[in-house]
Amino acid sequence: MHRLVSVTLAVMLLAGCTGPGEEAAPEVGTGGTGPITLVIGRDTTSYLRPLLDRWNAAHPGEPVTLLELPEAADEQRAQMVANLQAKSERYDVLALDVIRTAEFADAGWIIPLERAMFPLDRFLPPVVDTAVYQGKLWAVPYSSNAGLLYYRKDLLRREGLKPPKTWAEMREQAKRLSAKYDVGGYAGQYLAYEGLTVNFAEAVQSAGGKEIISSDGAKVTMDVGKAEAGLDFLVRGLREGWIPRESLTFKEEESRLAFQEGRLLFSRNWPHAYGPATQSAMAGKFAVTGLPGIDGPGSSSLGGYNLAISAYSKKQKSALAFIRYFTGLENQRRVLTDGSFPPVWAELYDDPALIKRFPYLPVLKQSILNAQPRPVAANYNQVSLAIASAVSRALTPPFEESSGDIAASLKTELNEIIRAR
Questions:
Q1: What is the distance between the alpha carbons of residues 29 and 8, in angstroms, rounded to a whole number?
Q2: 98 within 8 A of 303, measured Cβ to Cβ
Q3: Could you tell me the residue ranges of all domains in the chain?
Q4: Buried-exposed string 334-351: b where 16+ CB fall within 10 A, e elsewhere
Q5: What CATH topology corresponds to 2-145+303-370?
Q6: 2-145+303-370 with 148-299+379-419: one CATH topology?
Q7: CATH node for 148-299+379-419
Q8: Displacement of CA 408 from its chain's centroid (Å)
Q9: How many other β-carbons are positioned within 10 Å of the β-carbon of residue 385?
Q10: 277-316 pLDDT, tens per residue?
Q11: Is the peptide bond between 292 and the residue preceding it cis, with omega within 30 degrees of 0?
């Protein structure tokens, strides 16, 4: 009964809130309960169904139906946007990539949520920030992510070396050991797509830069000098050969395979690459650490998913109650143990039993705490496309345009995109 009263109170609060530029959400006080639909990217580990079955068994009048979208984030967005632009009632709970909060809130496609309804103080702080736009909470963190440096611990031990903490250390190790052991030195994701935007943001942050766009999405704040330093690090690696040229075609999967097949000494990737590597020829031969930076530990971009409620859902009370259930502590534990996705509850990263099973958790926790959100923008797709295009130009031989010129022109282009919004 207490839970029902709390949910009802939250819905009353929601009914009076509208976001910037959004239309008034459908009335949540009338017909606000009943069967709901969860829209999420394809479940590749089959962990979702048992979690949904538990909800359905306890809420026979509010069963949730799982609607799986394509695995690619861009295709997920396209299908969600088509539904929301049509003001369809079909979608109730949306699993949004963390980069989509501003866009969906600004368009009026999702409703603001009451902070007091969720134990946000027990979540990792940077993760909560991804669900906030212009001072309001628009979604609830469900899973997180941060980039890690995978490295060949067997080769480093053989040479008496520790994993690098700075770019200079990684460059020296990559140049020397790649020649000695006939392996590529280092690679990330350098194809011109969203992954390149992520890698660029991490390079800027790891060079000492802060946000590329202000947290309210209104101003380009990128430090051109830091951006130049980040680009120079990558360009130098490609020029000198310790970043293989083939990495210009790498997305996450290609870089994962290159590392676990023994073709790389170092690789930047997400935690999802850890499990497969333990089942490959690299089992027992690799470990992970945080990304290096220009003069010390670097900084990752934040990834993950948040759960939001469609502004056109007629079952917003049920949707809210479901999100509270789905982001609870025990389900978060299962997100990790059954789905292998990084949870958002801070205490799970300190659980000895979980650390034994997932040794990378302490490193991942610190990486998330040191991470920064990707650029906040209502027109994020245009921003990401501009960044990926400019960075690809910088990384593509024969490197005719300087990193400084590219960084400066990119800032100008981003300013035009933000102003045109």
A1: 9
A2: yes
A3: 2-145+303-370, 148-299+379-419
A4: bbbbebbbbbbbbebbee
A5: D-Maltodextrin-Binding Protein; domain 2 (3.40.190)
A6: yes
A7: 3.40.190.10
A8: 26
A9: 16
A10: 999 999 999 999 999 999 999 999 999 999 999 999 999 9
A11: no
Both structure tokens of 249? 């075609």
- Cα–Cα distance measured from residue 236 to residue 180, given in angstroms and rounded to the nearest whole number: 20
Q: Which amino acid is at 263?
A: R
Alpha carbon separation from 255 to 2, 238, 264 (Å, rounded) = 49, 15, 9
Q: What is the phi-psi region of residue 46: left when phi exceeds 0, alpha when psi lies from -120 to 50, beta otherwise?
A: left
354 vs 421: which has the higher pLDDT = 354
Tokens of 367: 């990486």
State pTM to two decimals.
0.89
Total residues found in the chain within this entry: 421
Residue 380, token pair as written in the block:
């994020």
Nearest one of 222, 371, 359 to 293, comparing CA atoms = 371
> Which of 246, 285, 240 lies closest to 262 in space, CA to CA?
285
Is 40:92 a contact under the CB 8 Å cutoff? no
- In angstroms, the CA 185 to CA 367 distance is 22
What are the start-end ranges of the E strands in 153-220? 184-187
Six token digits for residue 291: 């990304």
How is residue 351 written in tokens?
């659980």
| Residue 135, both tokens | 């001072």
